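1st attempt posting a full record on here, be nice pls
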Amino acid sequence: MNKLPCLALAAFLAIASAPALAEVGTLSNNGTGATKAAAEAKAKKNLEDACQSHKGQVVEGSFKVTFDKQMSNGQFYVDATMQCDIP
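the predicted structure (as tokens):
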């Protein structure tokens, strides 16, 4: 093979394989608790557990509450998202 096609093929394979090595996914989950802070903690724990079950690592600072509401029984409900670096 000539040098140029060989280099082009090597560059293409290197670029194509990079996304296959790791992927950042956004997970969503919810939590309930007696206080808003407790509901957020439960949602965060659920998201961390989901990330670990995919053999991933949590992206620090990516936890975000997307919805919160106090329910009629006095409990708080929280929807949240978190990014997970999945190998």
